[in-house]
Fold this protein.
Amino acid sequence: MSDSILYYTHPAEDFNNALPVGNGRIGGMIYGGTEKEHIGLNEDSIWSGGLRHRINPNAKEGVGEVRSLLAAGKIAEAEKTAMDKMAGIPEGCRHYMPLGDLDIYTGHSFKDAVSYRRSLDLEKALSCVEYEYEGVTYKREVFVSAPDNVMVIGLHASVPGKISFRTALGGRDDYFDDCRPDENGNIVYTGGSGSKDGISFAAVLKAVNKGGRLCTIGNSIRVENADEVLLLLSVRTSFYEKEYQACALKDVEKAAGKSYEKLKEDHIRDYRFLYERVELKLDDNSDGNSKLPTDERLIKIKEQPDNKLMELYFDFGRYLMISGSRPGTQPLNLQGIWNDSMWPAWGSKFTVNINTEMNYWPAESCNLPECHEPLFDLLERVAKNGHETAKEMYGIDRGYVCHHNTDIWGDCAPQDKWIPATIWPMSGAWLALHVYEHYLYSLDKEFLKERYHLIKGAAEFFIDFLTEDKEGRLITGPSVSPENTYRLPDGAEGKMCMGPSMDSQILRCLFTVFEECSSILDTDHELAAQLKSIKERLPEPEIGKYGQIKEWAEDYDEVEIGHRHISQLFALHPAELITPDKTPALAEAARATLERRLSHGGGHTGWSRAWIANMWARLHDADKVYENLEKLLGLSTNPNMFDNHPPFQIDGNFGGTSAIAEALMQCTDGEIKLLPALPVQWKEGSIRGLKAKGGFTVDMSWKDGKLASACVHAGVDGECRVRYDRDSFEELKLRAGEEYRLK
Ligand code: FUC
């Protein structure tokens, strides 16, 4: 059996046990029942309505008032004014919604089924349910094909004439309009999210049988005594296509012209092109547990190490990226693309004060750069709307601003009336750093030229937004340190502030990136010089009274010391303003910060735990990386391997995948560090295909904790320094296509 399979011996009793499939745009959650198969359906552009204009008409006056109140130390009053005058009206962006459900009724009761097995093969992106019932072996395979744009369900039986079932396709609320057969025996299911400029959808279900009989009754397809059946489900929306219904019909008809085997073969080839670029192998220290069903392994890892489960988690993260984010689709939201609720937690939106960014941390290092693209497409919409937001809210005419959430339209107005998060104007700046990250890994100048305006616009806004503090430094504000609360000397609590550390760190990175872009593209030199002088006046990371990195401009205590956000360590990860070699004193302070958070219960949400593991990797603390990965799997992972906030939230999956990659290789301090935080538990292993900045690809193996072999491949002409350990490194100069064996 391949190592890259999730498997279970019982059907999923709920969403947290069901298995995800997807092609970037269409998603399914497969429950694997015998009596009734239930597949939760998603399409990534089905959101709750059209673009809203939510800018508070009092925002401009509010900004000035809130600044003055914060400067005068009247925090509570400032916060009240901000919520009244700056919060969006209405309070929230649009939210993500499910498409509906597909049920397949076979009537095979689970208690009479034997040898039941439900699995998800990560090497083929194929989910499978198999069991024996009344002497017949039934097998159902499900995948979502990117080349054919359909969900494919293949129903097979070991004895001819034994496949009988009835389907039911529908939603669970008022948002759908119709569900009925067309003249070709397809079921056409249509609906939409209403509102002015809302999003409409059409899904089409088609059945193709070998042997037996097929007909429609009401709005279901009925199959009797077939040898084999192929179900195809397509869905298109008005967000992407004007003629969405015709397009959905075309998808199923086209797919129906192919055999099941051909659909499957094309799907696997397409998927593997991405998935096979990277391969991680760790030695098996599970004492036999690696052979157990996945849900049992996730329980056992609390007591017995299971490297193979970490390997599976890494592969699952790459699987989810490929299945949830492809060129031309929407970016991964809080639940990727898999959501069964009309009102999911936090609207299953793009929460951009950490969560959406975390989703894309492994995209470049794990060799899936094209999966990063949907984020840049969304950022185009953010930049456009955020330009209006900058003007209307802040009276700033250049650049763009986005607050802590956005939706499919790129709505940039503040989200919620929640003081710890709502007024945070930094997400455009953070997201723009992803554009440059993508460039750094490929050195694709054409890409940079095309998306450069996203970096420029993000930076420009701050020229007018920053204000001087008492010491003449330039600071952001009104803002927050997401989503933490400080204690004032008189015991009162505050959230909003001027100049939180994270903001200055993000801007330091952004302005540096801007300078580099201006020099690479030989453009906007004056602006680059201006931003450089502004950068010199930004606050630097500072060490506070506990030896920690200060979170706020004042050395306040946190109300909740173990808070899940550790925003002041943005400088350590994902940025590299703090590294053990370049800034040892700050690295020590970063360590103290993590220890303080963790000793007070920090890391209790999945994504927080995953971020912490990345941070320890950057501090080269392999033991802590391992300990936190183990906790991520043991305490914050659902039986289906989805990250658990709780509830399910996908960011931790990608954060965890990124942490594993960071333990094995880092591109910091201008060099490629091999095995910078290798846990002792990963005694032997190898990785192939990790990407390094500069267009390099790295393969390596290790034994007894030491590098055994390494090979660097150059994608473009370039130079790099490769470090094996603290004392040894090599400088390489390679031409595109060349490789160098280090050992
Ligand atoms: C931020 C986090 C929460 C949650 C939400 C979606 O607000 O603080 O923990 O992840 O986003």
Q: What stands out?
A: The two ends are 32 Å apart (CA to CA). Residues 334, 346, 351, 355, 421, 483, 564-565, 605, 607, 645, 649 surround alpha-L-fucopyranose (CB under 6 Å).
